[in-house]
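DM from R.C. (forwarded with permission)

"hey, sorry to bug you on a friday — could you get me a structure for this? deadline for the figure draft is monday and I only need the backbone to look sensible"
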Amino acid sequence: MVSTSSILQSSIRPLRIGMIGAGTVGGGVYEIIMNRLGSRSAGNNTTASGAKKQVVITKICVRDPTKPRDFQNDKRSTEIVTDINSIVNDKDIDLVVEVMGGTSLAKSAVLESLKQGKSVVTANKALIAENLEEIVGVLNQVNERVVGKEAVTAGDGGNVKFAYEASVCGGIPVIQVLQSCYTGDIINEVMGICNGTTNFMLGKMEAGADYDEVLKEAQDLGFAEADPSADVDGYDVRAKIAILAKLAFGTTVPVDTIPCMGITNISVIDFAYAKSMGCTIKLVGTAVRQSQFGEHDGALSVYVSPKLVPNTHLLASATGCGNAVAIDSANLGIASYTGPGAGRYATANSIVADILRVANNTSTASPFPFSSNIEIDNDYVSAFYIRISFQDGLGIIRRIGELSESQEVSIHSILQQPITDRMAADTVVTTEACKYSQVKALCELIEKEDFALCAPVFMPMFTGSEYFCA
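My reply, with the result:
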C-alpha cells in the first residue's frame, strides 16, 4: 500500500483536499480517501495525458482539535486546524469538502472557496436549497474569469466544480442520475422517501407503536436529534425535493414556498385505515408537472407530505431507514432508485465519488445542467385522505358533506370503524382529485364545528394504475 506521504512526494501533483468538519461523515471520508483507497486512488484516477491523478486530504478544520475522533489521523500528511480561512485561503488546496453542516458559516466557506478558484464538494442540502441561485451565480462568474487563463482549480480542465451527490438520499447516486441519464428524456414527476429517520418511525407506527414511543426510540438509536423538527416536520425532505425539482425540471423553487407537512399528527389509527385500503403511509417529497391541456403539460407543483401509498407501489418497499426515489419520465416510464439514505460510509461514499469525478474531470459541466421557466403552482392537485376525530351525535356525516360541497370538494368514500367510545370516535373521508387549498380550507371549517375534537388530519393519496408496479 502506498503511503499518503509518498503520494505528496510523487512527481505527479496530487489533488489536495481541505475538509471542513470531521464528524461521522467527515471521518468516513477521511478513512476512505486516506486508508481504504491507498494506492488504488492512484490507479483509479488517470488524467487526460495518461498520468495518474492522486488525491490526499492535507488539512482538516475542526472546532476543537483536542476532541477524540473516531478515525486515525495521519499527521505526516494531514494538518488539523481551527481556522476555516487557513483552508479557504490556502493556495495549495485544490478542493474543499464541506461536511460541517449549518447554513451560515458553511455558506461563507463554500462561496469563498469557489471565489478562490477551489472546487467544492458538500452534503449540505439546506445550504444548497436555500442558496441555489447564488451558488450557481458565483460558480459561473469564477469559471468565466478563468476561461483562457491558467487553471486555478482542482483537476486539469481549468473549471471550478460544485458537487453535491451526498446532499440527497445519502448513498443513492440520484444526483448523478438526474444530471446525466435523463438528458434525452422528459421527466413528468419525481417523488421520494428522502428521510430515513421518519421512514423508520412510520414503520414502527405501522407495527403498532405510538408516535411519542417511536420518537424516543429513534433518538436513543441516534437516528433523531434531541430537537427532531428538521426530520419530523418535513424540513429535511423539503430541502431535498427542492434540489431534485431543480435537477428534473430546471426550475428553482424557493424553499419557503413549498407546502410542508410532517408526521407529528399521524397516529396508529391512520395506519389502521390505510391497511383497510391496502396502503401504507410514507413521508414523500413530490415534484410533478400538473396536467392542463394534455398530460403533464401544466405548472410544476412541489410539496412534502405524508401520503397513502398502495402496498403494491415501489415506494412502499422502502423499510427501516432506507430511502427510495421514483422518477416518471416519457421514455423510461417509472424507474426507481433505492438504498441507504444516511450513515457514515454510505454518505461518505457519495462524497468520495464526487471528489474522484472532480479529480478525473468527469464531473458535469454545470451542477444543474439546464434551466426552464416552467410556472410554479404549489397548490397541487390530488385525491386526499381526511381523518376527522369527533364526539358522536346526529347529522355529523351530513354536515361534513355540506362543508365539502361549500369548498367544491367531491367525496369519494366514507370509512368508519365501529365506535367504541362515543365521546372520542374517528371517521375518514376520501376525496376525488381537488386542490390542496380546497382540502385545507375544508379541514379548517370542520375544526370549527362543535362535534370536532381537533383539527382533521389530511394527506394526499396515490391514485391511478400508473403508480403501481407489477
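R.C.: lifesaver. The longest strand covers residues 279-289.
me: no worries. The mean pLDDT is 90.
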